[in-house]
Structure formats: C-alpha cells, structure tokens
C-alpha cells in the first residue's frame, strides 16, 4: 500500500488515509510550518492496544537535533505572534474548535484505535478539547490585568500579561487531545509559541490537533510538534536554554525529573502528576448512585486517569451491601475493543502497562488481609490486546501498597471506616492530592469533608472524574507544584505580569517619599 505523509495533505485526507483499512501512513514532525522527518531518518510504530498487530502509522523517532530546530522555529515565530492582537489569535482558535466539531467522530474513532478507551469516552476527550479552545478563545477579548490606584496623585497603574516566549509541552496518552488543548490553548491566547512533545503511545491524536491548527490558519512556527521518546526529546526540551516554561502531565517520577532538569536554567515548570483518588461512601448515601459513580470512576478509561477512583472508603454500616452492589454492577461491564457495540471497558495502553498493573494485583493478593473479590487477571478472551479484568479488592487497610501507590489501571480497593473524621483522615493519608468524592445526603458532613479534604478537586455526590474546562484542574501534595491546568488559573502559567506605571505630572514624583502633603 502506498505510503502517505501528512505534509502535503489536507486534514480530511489525513483522516481518510488513517481510516482506510490496510493503509499504514508515515507521518512527520511539524517544524516551522513544514512537515519534516526526524534527522535520524528513523521511525516508530503506533499500535492498537486492543490488537497490537494493527499498525496505525509510523512516526519520526526524533532527538535533540529536531528539538533544536523546533525551538528555533518557535523563537522566530514569537517575534510576530506576540504582537498579533489577542482577539485575532483567538479567532484562529475558534476556527480550530469548529474544525474539531466537524471531524469529531473520525477523530474519536482514531483515538479509540490508538489508545483503547471506548468511543463514548474518546468523544468526550475531543469534546473537552473543543470546550477548551472555545473557552480560551473567549479569553482573547479579556486577558484581564488590573488597574489600580497609585499612591501619587498624577500617576496611573496597571498590569498586563506578557507571554513567556517559546514553551515546551509534554503531554500524556490517556487524554491525547484534551490535555494538549489545556496547554496549547492558553499558551496561544497569551501569545507564546510552543514545541509539543506528545506521548509516543498517542502520536496520531496530537498530530490531528496540530493539523487542525494548521488548517485554521495558525502562522508557521507558532505550534511545532516533535515526536519521539522522553529520554531524548523531553530531555532536550528541558535542557534548552530558550525554552521558558515546561508544562508536563504524567507520572510523579517523571515530573520530579522535569522539575530537577529545569531548575538550573530557572525555567517555569508546571506539573500535573499522579493521583490516588478516593470515593467516600457514608452510611446515609444513596447507594445506587454511589455504585454508578464508583464503577464509572474506577473502570472508565480502564482506570487510566489521573482522576480514577482507586480507593473506596466505605462506612462499616453499608460496607457489605455496597460491596455486593459493586460486584453486581461490575458483572455488567463488557471488556473489548472500544469501537465495538456494547463494550464498556477497553484495553490498557500497552504491554508494559499491563504487566505493571498485573504486578500490583499480585502485590494486593499477597497482602495478609486483603481479599481479591472479582477480576484480577488478563482477559485473553476479550481480544489479542492488553485486556485486564476490572478488579476489586476488599478489606484493604490504608497503608497497604495498593491503597497508597498509583496503579493506573482497572483496580480499586475498599477500605472500611466508622466515621467521617476517619474517612477524611484515610483520604488524606497519601502522598497525592488530586481528586476525592463523598456520597452523603447530610450537608454538614459534605461541607466538613469539603473543608478538610486535601485535594485539588472535591466532588459531592458525584465521582472523582468529571472536571470541566472552566474550572482549575490540578492537585495538592505530590500531584502538582501549585499550578493548575484549565480554568482562569492556567492564564497565570502561560503569562507573566508586567506592572506599568504612567506618570502624568511632568515632574519627578517619588513613590514612598513624595506621598505626604
Ligand atoms: C486525567 O485524569 O488525566 O475529569 C484527566 C476528568 C477529565 C480529565 C481527566 N475531564 O476525569
């Protein structure tokens, strides 16, 4: 079959080439508005986790030299992009959002094929990118600073937001359009240029997002994408003197490395890392509702969300009943290829991930008291790919490894408590602080939980997943470094405050000195 490349094709032709059965296109990096292969000439394959014999495409195996070119292109484009009025920059983003709407279905299908989650969820992923583009496009006509009084009579004070320059974006595979959009959209509207280094498990979704911006008329060099491993491309971004910010979403271990690598050049660093999220179920909860929330939050995206509920902290009076109800609901889940009818849980992303999750299941089984209730195995009947049965442990105690460490798979652990105070203590007794939830009808309990819980997202009578783009997304403790994606907060990450003072007295007015009559 003829090899197609992304360089000369329109977005709709690229989509067609990927969707044509048997066709395996080869794609390039996007640097300075040109589609170019890696300098090494090497490529890597993008495989379907539901069926690894299904090759979706070939992508450039890039290295430091490619990153250097991309940063250079970003620097060149920055000179003019920063001067384009923000409302004009935003218009490009509106057009990009409209293109995503137009091609949402094709993009969702391709995303399911490359990373596994079921198509209802990949539609949500593309939708989240649409929401973020429109939300940030609106910012083009706000980007508010402050006007504030001066201590001197004939002086005017205000702040504006300056872009940082060329920023580096390192994004994960579990939300391959939503998370890049959380970073690209505010970076663009604030006037930055950027180099995107997407996860190697999901190059196609990132490429499609970049194609969308190309077709929407983004000037050359503003958004560059370089495919390749973190060990070369990620490191090269972090080590490049002209990268001003590295925004990273991924594991806590890699985030620590990003933080260290960026320290000596004083880069800004925005980190969104692991989670060990919980759902608390109190004795007065609507248990049907709680079960729906638990099963969705624990097994949606096969548990591969930073926000997945991997602990269920349950009041002793409803423990046995809740457990039975969860098991019943789990039996209705259907494991399989996410594009097939009726499938509710897809594969995990690759073989290494599968082995890591199965290893955690073994660790859980070897804990003295913990009981494996249902699941716990690879399921080869679901397909040739990386399928793991949704898995429930019970009688887990708060310090067991399966209650402390991020598993990033379809595994959740029930922990019994006897009071709200104990529930919140258990919820907080971890190194992470991304998302938590409580099911209770008691407003006093709900508000006490909301006051005391240490997590960046806190849900009442709703599961740990379901963030919306106009609210800040991020976590406390080892989940982050104080930054937030999305919401108004992301504008702080992608801009710097400049305080401007205008003196209209025609004389020297000295602050702190001439302010007395
Ligand atoms: C993630 O888990 O990595 O709230 C992101 C949610 C989604 C985003 C999750 N809107 O679960």
Short description:
By secondary structure, this protein is an alpha/beta fold. The chain has helices spanning 11-19, 64-81, 86-102, 104-115, 119-139, 178-189, 203-215, 230-239, 252-263, 287-299, 319-331, 351-365, 401-404, 420-428, 443-452, 489-493; strands at 29-31, 34-36, 43-48, 51-60, 147-148, 155-163, 166-171, 193-198, 223-225, 243-249, 268-272, 277-281, 309-315, 371-374, 391-394, 411-417, 432-433, 435-439, 457-460, 476-477, 495-503. The structure holds 2-aminohexanedioic acid.
Please, could you describe this protein's structure?
This protein is of the alpha/beta class and 517 residues long. It has two domains: 65-273 and 481-497, Aldehyde Dehydrogenase, Chain A, domain 1, CATH 3.40.605; 277-460, Aldehyde Dehydrogenase, Chain A, domain 2 (3-Layer(aba) Sandwich). The chain contains 16 helices and 21 strands. A seven-stranded mixed sheet has the order 14-15-16-13-12-18-19, sandwiched between helices. A five-stranded parallel sheet has the order 9-8-7-10-11, with helices on both faces. It has a three-stranded antiparallel sheet with strand order 5-6-21. Strand 12 (277-281), helix 10 (287-299) and strand 13 (309-315) form a beta-alpha-beta unit. Helix 3 crosses helix 7, helix 4 packs antiparallel against helix 7 (203-215) and helix 5 runs parallel beside helix 6 (178-189). The protein is globular, with a radius of gyration of 24 Å. The model has no long low-confidence stretch (mean pLDDT 97). Bound molecules: 2-aminohexanedioic acid (UN1). 2-aminohexanedioic acid (UN1) binds next to loops.
């Amino acid at each position: 079959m003829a090899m197609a490349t992304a360089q000369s094709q329109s977005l709709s032709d690229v989509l067609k080439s990927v969707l044509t059965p048997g066709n395996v296109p080869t794609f390039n990096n996007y640097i300075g508005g040109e589609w170019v292969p890696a300098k090494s000439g090497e490529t890597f394959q993008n495989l379907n986790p539901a069926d690894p014999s299904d090759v979706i495409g070939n992508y450039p195996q890039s290295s430091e030299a490619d990153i250097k070119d991309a940063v250079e292109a970003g620097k060149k484009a920055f000179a003019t992009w920063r001067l384009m009025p923000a409302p004009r920059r935003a218009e490009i983003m509106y057009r990009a959002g409209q293109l995503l709407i137009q091609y949402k279905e094709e993009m969702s299908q391709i995303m399911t094929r490359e990373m596994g989650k079921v198509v209802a969820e990949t539609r949500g992923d593309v939708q989240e990118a649409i929401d973020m583009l429109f939300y940030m496009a609106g910012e083009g006509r706000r980007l508010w600073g402050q006007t504030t009084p001066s201590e001197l009579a004939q002086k005017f004070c205000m702040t504006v937001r300056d872009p940082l320059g060329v920023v580096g974006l390192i994004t994960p595979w579990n939300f391959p359009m939503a998370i890049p959009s959380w970073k690209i959209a505010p970076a663009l509207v604030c006037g930055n240029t950027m180099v995107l280094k997407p996860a190697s498990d999901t190059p196609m979704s990132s490429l499609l997002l970049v194609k969308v911006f190309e077709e929407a008329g983004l000037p050359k060099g503003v958004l560059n994408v370089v495919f390749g491993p973190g060990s070369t491309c990620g490191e090269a971004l972090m080590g490049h003197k002209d990268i001003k910010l590295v925004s990273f979403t991924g594991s806590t271990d890699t985030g620590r490395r990003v933080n260290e690598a960026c320290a000596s050049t004083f880069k800004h660093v925005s980190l969104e890392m692991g989670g060990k999220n919980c759902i608390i179920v109190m004795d007065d909860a609507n248990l049907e509702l709680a079960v729906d929330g638990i099963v969705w939050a624990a097994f949606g995206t096969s548990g591969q969300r930073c926000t997945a509920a991997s602990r269920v902290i349950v009041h002793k009076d409803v423990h046995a009943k809740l457990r039975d109800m969860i098991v019943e609901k789990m039996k209705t889940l259907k494991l399989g290829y996410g594009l097939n009818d009726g499938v509710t849980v897809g594969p995990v992303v690759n073989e290494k991930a599968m082995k890591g999750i199965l290893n955690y299941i073994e660790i859980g089984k070897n804990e003295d008291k913990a009981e494996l209730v249902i699941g716990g195995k690879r399921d080869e009947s679901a397909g040739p790919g990386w399928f793991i049965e949704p898995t429930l442990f019970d009688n887990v105690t708060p310090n067991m490894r399966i209650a402390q460490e991020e598993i990033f798979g379809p595994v959740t652990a029930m922990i019994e408590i006897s009071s709200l105070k104990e529930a919140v203590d258990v919820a907080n007794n971890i190194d992470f602080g991304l998302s938590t939830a409580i099911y209770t009808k008691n407003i006093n309990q709900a508000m006490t939980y909301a006051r005391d819980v240490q997590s960046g997202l806190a849900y009442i009578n709703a599961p740990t997943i379901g963030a919306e783009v106009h609210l800040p997304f991020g976590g406390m403790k080892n989940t982050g470094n104080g930054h937030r994606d999305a919401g108004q907060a992301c504008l702080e990450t992608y801009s710097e405050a400049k305080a401007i003072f205008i003196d209209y007295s025609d004389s020297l007015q000295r602050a702190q000195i001439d302010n007395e009559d």
